[in-house]
Each structure stands twice: as C-alpha cells, then as structure tokens.
Amino acid sequence: xxxxxxxxxxxxxxxxxxxxxxxxxxxxxxxxxxxxxxxxxxxxxxxxxxxxxxxxxxxxxxxxxxxxxxxxxxxxxxxxxxxxxxxxxxxxxxxxxxxxxxxxxxxxxxxxxxxxxxxxxxxxxxxxxxxxxxxxx
Length: 137
Fold this sequence. Notes:
Elements: H1 7-17, E1 23-29, E2 32-37, E3 44-45, E4 49-50, H2 52-71, E5 78-86, E6 96-105, E7 109-118, E8 126-133
Antiparallel strand pairs: 1-2, 2-6, 3-4, 5-8, 6-7, 7-8
Protein name: Phenylacetic acid degradation-related protein
InterPro entries: HotDog_dom_sf, Thioestr_dom
GO molecular function: 1,4-dihydroxy-2-naphthoyl-CoA thioesterase activity
C-alpha cells in the first residue's frame, strides 16, 4: 500500500494544526502507524497509573495519523466514534506507545484498530477502535 504522505509531513502538519499535543509520530508504514506519548506527572491518576483520557487521546491520535498517511493531510477528517478497553495497568514511569492499523478505508468512513503498550511491554494495556469521517474532496 502506498503512503500518501511522509512521516516528516505528518509531523509538520500536527505541529502546525495541533500545537497543543505532546504526542509524537514515530513511524508510518504499510502495516500502520506508531505514536508515542511521553508520560509525566500530569498524565497520572491516583493509584499511580496512566489516566484513561491520556490513553484515549493517544489512541485517537494514532488513528488520525494512520488515516492521514493513506488519504493525505485532510484536517477536517474527524473522529465519529472511539471505544476503548483498558486491559491492564500501564506503568506510570514508561511512555505509552500506540500502534494503529486501518480495518476499513472507504470514501466517507475509515475504521482503525489501535493497541496501546507501556514502552517495553509485550502485552497491550488497552485496545481501541475508532471511526473517522472523511470530508468530501
């Protein structure tokens, strides 16, 4: 599968359009996209675990990145649905890495599957599915 844009182009786009995000794009290839959220004190909840909103934002960003890698830099592609299952406690002292792959890419909708990991861990800490609406061209 050919990529519509490079990792460098996606990184530049996110810096320009979403300067508030601290999520970094690691890689994009035919199998999907990897993103990373550095974890600090602001990302933790009581009990010493990464907060749900942090993991949801990371999953959503990973889905957006994999979609953009296929359709190009379309700022108005938007999340229409996101569901997440928290599987195990993520490490409070490790970054969260997420891998997203597309299950379906249509003209108007795309569905992505996302697995989130504590850096260095083999078992996912969460699993998400996101649907994106693609604006008409």
